[in-house]
Amino acid sequence: MLEQIRLKVRENQQQFIFAVLAVLTGAAIGLAVGQFESMLLLALPVGLVFAALTFLNPELGILLFVFITYIRFSDVLVHSFGVPSIAKGMVGLLVLAILARWAVLKRFPEGWLRVSVLIAAYGFVVFGSILHGRDYARALAAVSDYWKDGLIAILMVLLIQKRETFRGVIWMMIFAGIFMGSISMHQYLTGNFSSDYFGFATASYLNISEGVEGNRISGPLGDPNYYAQILVFLFPLAVDRFFREPNRYLKITAGYAAFVIGMTIVFTFSRGGAVAAVLAMMVLVIYHPPKLKNSILILGVIWIGFLLLPSTYTDRLSTLTDLAQSNKQSTAEVSFRGRISEVLSAWYMFRDYPILGVGVQNYPVYYQEYSRSIGLDPRAEAREPHNLYLEVAAETGVLGLMIFGTILVSVFQAVRRVHTRLREWGEEDMKNMVEAFSSGLVGYLGAAMFIHGAYPRYLWLLVGIALSLTQVFSTELSTKGAH
Fold first, then answer.
1. CA distance 249 to 255
2. Nearest Cα to 345, choosing from 368, 322, 379?
3. pLDDT (tens digit per residue) in 59-92
4. Cα(196)–Cα(92) distance, integer angstroms
5. Extents of the domains making up the chain
6. CA–CA separation, 164 vs 429, rounded Å?
7. Residue ranges in 160-270 assigned as alpha helix (H)
8. The pTM is what?
């Protein structure tokens, strides 16, 4: 009887998730065919309902929060329509819900202390680095953003305490991929680059290969390389659920998600995104070497996909092999010369300011000074380091690099520890999801080798989810072990 009740509750939660997606889709259609004022009138009661549900059941609230964070729903509304930040309101509601549950039930979530210490330690280094930065305003704004993102990481640990919640988070991120990928596919295949789809689908007109320019799908981020990075993380999640999800309808959903996410990565024309996607899938294959039947299916899909690739995409990827072969023409390409200059500048800044760096968000302020001495980049403009790890080193020095490295090591230690326990206890489904999460995280961090941390909220969101896994393990599997 109890098991039937649990299954019914789980089914209701899934229905609620799909209802949320339906409401969001309806709101988007309302934007397209109705008046903006009418949409606001509709949004008010819907927002109140969501607020009440979030307060009464913060686990459901965190699922919705993950979805709107990943598609940048709040940022799009703020920048495109001037609507007040939804994300800030949801964070406030979630914090209040946690405190209310603590006050009434005398029950406070566990496992939050370690992540809080790590976030605080890195925050103090980030704050300390601004004291000698040339552009104090830029640094101060970055510190403010960091503490907001750090709070999100802590919230993930506080609210993802059960296996069902973690599974829900995985699916909400897959749904986010469906939402963004479907819009991006429509934009690219119809050539409707003049529309930004209410802020959810931008398309930057940029260099693709030597002498060739064109539209590169940029999604709600406005930059194709960063868009590819967040999609790379989602790709192994969708692939894993397509092959291993027991529910037939969800399996089909995951297959569609993998298709639109994978094709959208292609349409970004991001070389770093392509390399990171391959890296993520290699890790997933190491976890699950495919059987012969699946291998044939995968090779067939890859072959068909290769035949359908735009010639401009293969031309762009060919520059990677040209660079590896020290092709002089490729090395002379503006983007490669610029990247080399940016990476070298970051290294020299770290060498000259080794303790606390040049100050958070102050790399662009120093760039031209270093670029002129290197002599590779003719562009007379502020640039970014295009490497997250060199950015951390250049802007926060050895102290920042050590703590940031500690956070990443803690993330993979948590994933490895939980993965080992899940394998021992035979929790196959959750083990598969952890493996897919780990693969996506490797891909995301691999992409960070080619771009800097312009959208750090995604990183800290994933850090929080990863560090929550230890608590998911302790509440779920230790109970099983006790019996």
1. 10
2. 368
3. 888 999 999 999 999 898 888 878 778 888 888 8
4. 30
5. 1-108, 109-482
6. 11
7. 163-190, 224-244, 248-267
8. 0.87
